[in-house]
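Lab notebook: predicted structure, single chain.

Context: the supervisor wants predicted structures on file for every construct in the current expression panel, including those that have not yet been purified. This is the next one on the list. No modifications to the sequence; it matches the entry in the shared construct table.
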Amino acid sequence: MTAAPLSPVAAPVPPAADPSPGSVSGSAPGGPLAHIRGIRLSVPVDVIVSFAVVAVVVAFSLAPWLFTAQNPAQGVPADKLQPPSAAHLLGTDHLGRDLFARIVFGAQSSVTSALVAVAIGVVVGGLIGLLAGFLGSWTDTVLARLVDVLLAIPAFLLAVVIVSSLGFQTINAAIATGVSAVAVFARVMRSEVLRVRSSVFVEAARLQGGSTLHVLFRHVLPNASRSLIPLAVLQFGLSILVIAGLAFLGYGDPPPASDWGLLISAGKDYPRAPWLVVWPALVTVATVLSINRISRWLRRTS
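Prediction complete. Output recorded below exactly as produced.
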């Protein structure tokens, strides 16, 4: 008798090694993902850094006195135009005022005015888009033409015209920035309402006897407003930039206010003290870029 052929035996495959605690993996499509003590975080590292930057700026605006003991409006003339040092971390301006203190206290005005601008855009623009998309007919036609007119005017130019009519103050600059953003929110909300209005659950709510207001605010609005969150975050950063630009041109609060745009405008007159422009500009750019990164991440995850 012939012996039966022996079947090959596969060698055992060693188990894959677990990632070590504290390692960082960059294989995710959304960017590198952090591993903290073996726990895999679904937030990219650059988004975490962006959140940290925004958190610091918000802390500046909420409690600026916790970060500096210097008076942002009063200085020592003998200490004017001093470069960054241990006594003045970011240097002093032409009146001897601490630049770090002025940036910290200026965050309150920048953040608050940007929030006002976003609130105006979300409420007014969202309401216009909600009514245009849900009611349709002549209401949609009239409101859509109004939005088209607003979109045809450059946003910054419209803000300059409005703030020139209202007066040169930061709150008026915030109102002007919010009005210039109404059209963007209205267009996005209208497109989302048109999509949600034809959904099955909306038709079911109508067949069950739901009133127009019930269907509108109970079913359509919650589902259509999700897309406004990333847009509102993006508009928050854009509002900071626009309001800083208006303050740079002199459309904000007058000195001794410490708006970031006003600090850059005042510092450009002293070319031998570049820190007067570099630091306020760097804070503004870092804040806006961080907010934009957070908005892009929210749009991808929503």
